[in-house]
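User:
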Amino acid sequence: MNKKDNIDELFERLQGGFDLENPADGHQERFLDKLNSSTGVVTLQKKKTSWWKPLSIAASIALVCVLGLQVYNGQPNIKERVVEISPEVSKTEFYFASLIEEQVELLKDEKSPETAKLVDDTLSQLNNLEEDYKVLEQELVDGGDSKLIMNAMITNFQTRIDLLKEVLTTVETIKNLKNQDDANFTI
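Assistant: Predicted structure:
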């Protein structure tokens, strides 16, 4: 325990005498210069901050994003190309499509157990006509006879509307017959 006592006495004697100050700016450089001049040792160099690597990574990411957007947005879809070829088609399509959509909603509202098969078959036929219309659009874009194709497109819309009107009339007839049968039925 004698050594421990000596260390404790040493610290008690030096209490308050420790140097707690930070060295002045440039102290390390001055020290290394003095050390190098006397012994010829290589100096410690400060690490320079390089912005080249992070900047090149950011530029690469930006380039990939720009190229991706151009590829994604570069080619117009079929609808846009049809509008470029014939702006009248888009106006006609909007008119007929809204009219057909109204009729389809009416048909769906009229669906009942008695008319379910008829309504489902009609919706299936409408989907087939829609697929035919998409083929006509593609043919128009591919450079077919534009007047002939546009007439076929209009005929396609008219066929859909006629089909919907006929089916709605049939559904009304079925409903009226059912109501008459229900009215004639006595308890």
